[in-house]
UniProtKB/TrEMBL annotation:
Keywords: ATP-binding, Nucleotide-binding, Transport. The keyword Metal-binding does not apply. This is ATPase component of various ABC-type transport systems with duplicated ATPase domain. The lineage of its organism: Bacteria, Bacillati, Bacillota, Bacilli, Bacillales. GO terms for molecular function: ATP binding; ATP hydrolysis activity. One of its GO terms (biological process) is peptide transport. Residues 8-253 form the ABC transporter domain. Pfam families: ABC_tran, oligo_HPY. PROSITE patterns: ABC_TRANSPORTER_1, ABC_TRANSPORTER_2. Belongs to the ABC transporter superfamily.
Amino acid sequence: MKRPDVLLSGKNVTKVFGYGKNKKTAVHDVSFDFHEGEIVSIVGESGSGKTTLAKMLLGLLSETSGEILYKGQPRSLKSHADRKKYWKDIQAIFQDPFSSFNVFYKVERLLRDCIKLQGLKLSEEKQLEMMKDACSFVNLKFEELHNKYPFELSGGQMQRLMIARIFMLHPKILIADEPTSMIDACSRSTILDMLLKLREANNMTIIFITHDVGLAYYVSDTIYIMEKGQFVESGPADEVILNPQHPYTKQLISDVPKIHEEWNLAI
Ligand SMILES: Nc1ncnc2c1ncn2[C@@H]1O[C@H](COP(=O)(O)OP(=O)(O)O)[C@@H](O)[C@H]1O
Ligand SMILES: [Mg+2]
């Protein structure tokens, strides 16, 4: 079988914050290839540079040096129109699903905006059908939620709505930065299963960022282990987890049996 095409890649990507004695290299000389339809996890402890890398991938932060290529080409993100075009293809969900939205907008508006964002001119009937489909994709009922405000939803419900939005926007790449770290263990496995379903439905490339190597093993094809801004080990999930080479990976994995116990209790 032909290996899927490389969609997003990085060559010696570095991000330095600040100057002089306040200088901090958050991401240090990382290179990577993320393929079409692949679920990649980036795993590392808090402060290892994961979110900084995610922001560079999204074009929210510029690289200090090195280069990020999309479909083999340097990205052009100078104008607003360029960025808008890029963000049709790459979207993100974050740790705190409430932070991304106007708290005064009801659920219906939040979903309807996805239709608007795509510039789709659809009949009211068709719009309702799309919103209902997106909700049922994440096991929510549009009729029960459409009139609610974000603060009336649980963290798990809100994160599922974020996934419903991604289902409607169907970007080529989704960056999920610690999407389960603020929700309870039970909703956590649901969210992970929905990420897997998204990939099934749209052949989406998913970049799953986590400090939890157990979760990474559960969802991903490929794992990159990040320590202090650098990738210290990467490869197919089975190889990295079952036959770790780097001491830092071994240290992360030593917590896994405990994680699995928690998981069995949670599921
Ligand atoms: N805007 C910023 N200015 C200065 N330092 C930053 C900034 N953003 C992140 N950092 C630093 O970069 C390092 C990596 O942070 P981050 O990418 O958020 O890590 P992670 O997401 O893995 O927890 C940390 O030491 C953090 O303090
Ligand atoms: Mg982070």
